[in-house]
Structure prediction request, 322 residues.
Amino acid sequence: MAYKKVKLNHISRKALEVGHVYKYPVFYKDIGDIYQALIEQDESFTKETQDKIDKLQLKDLYVLTKDHPLYEKDTQVYIAKILDDNSISSKLKSEIIHDMATDTINELFSGEINKNKIDRSTELVNDTIQLILNDESAAKAMLGVTSYDYYTYTHCVNVSIYALGFGAHLKLDKNKLNVLGRAGILHDLGKKNIPNEIVNKNGRLTDEEFSTMKSHPVLAVEILKELGENNQLVLDAIEQHHEKLDGSGYPKGLKAHEIHILSQIIAIADIFDALTTKRSYKDALKTFDALSIMKNEMTSELNPHLLAEFMVFMGNRIDRYK
Prediction:
């Protein structure tokens, strides 16, 4: 089976389970934008198929858009299974959850926003929390799979990972970790309602464009409320993630104790990832350089005690610099 023009959804190749029979075909992109079936409908995903993926160096796989809900159900079952399997490495578990989260948030930003996609992101946050809390090496493994190229959706996943790992380092309870993870992965959702030419502009924004961009925390809260979100901590953490301790932030110009501590954590994760990811107009900074800038140039903006602890966290958890 092969297609040229058809609606497809990207999927994680790491989320395919050897031995599982899939009720739908899985495709890869061949020469000439032809999508060839890697496995046909009702066919088992075998070790030989996995070897074929490696031999052809296939980085991207797809399912028909109409089959994507079936794929999501399969992956939910698979993730639940691997989280309880001690024979599977933290690295592989982290890679699978990260890939799933990246695809989910990409769909959220590129397509229609709906409650099902928001709920799916929450499930993946909960999977990440379970992994981090049950496996001491998982936080380090999760940091190792963050993306170094900046896109809004990869940035959101990265911020969620940093915030969750740091929150676990601070020994926050599961409810607070849930808030951090969800706020992190959804903190830039409001950019969905801002023109792409502003969001993706190469270089400095004009004053007018920046004024528009500054609306994204409030827009995110509005979107989530419309979809039924009623966790005020999540909404506050999202709305306040650009507030600064000296009152120079937005949207409300809050100061110090007026900013929720979880929002302050999201702010640190947000800035760190922005500095250490590559954009078209700037190279990614190494971890040491990014933390130096945050410590030396943002002392009036960020919580100094949290920042000092974040530096300890990053020093303990990362083996290599970005």
Remarks:
- Residues 1-67 form one domain.
- The first helix runs from residue 47 to 55.
